[in-house]
Amino acid sequence: MAAPDINSPEEQARYQRGLEVLSAIDGGGAPAVMDGLGDIAPALAHHIVAFGFGDIYSRPALVPQQRQLITLGILAALGGCEPELEVHIRTSLNVGLTPEQIVETFIHTLGYAGFPRAINAITIAKKVFAERGLLPVSE
């Protein structure tokens, strides 16, 4: 089966829909990430936007805050995704989650993924919160 032509009108429409969703939540950092992939894996950059945001994130059953909580929990549990976790912590704040909700998500992750994953996630959150002047976080 041939790969889809990322320049076809259908694929470009998916990409534009995804870019609109992504731009509404990410605070402006996404274009740099996509541009960074453009010279080595333009199809990957396209699919992140078209599939990840145009098809998946734009589904109406969940609101952005719910999607972000799920994403934070998954990335924390997976481990090894700290750069993506940092981006999604920022995005979570952009869509209205509080630092307390984010911390609580990582505390909840402790029971399912263990101390190292929860500590790694909290460490990344602390970095983002410090950059935004959101420390200390009260429970």
UniProtKB/TrEMBL annotation:
This is 4-carboxymuconolactone decarboxylase. GO terms for molecular function: peroxiredoxin activity. Coiled coil: none annotated. It comes from Kribbella jejuensis. Residues 42-126 form the Carboxymuconolactone decarboxylase-like domain. Signal peptide: none annotated. Gene3D superfamilies: AhpD-like.
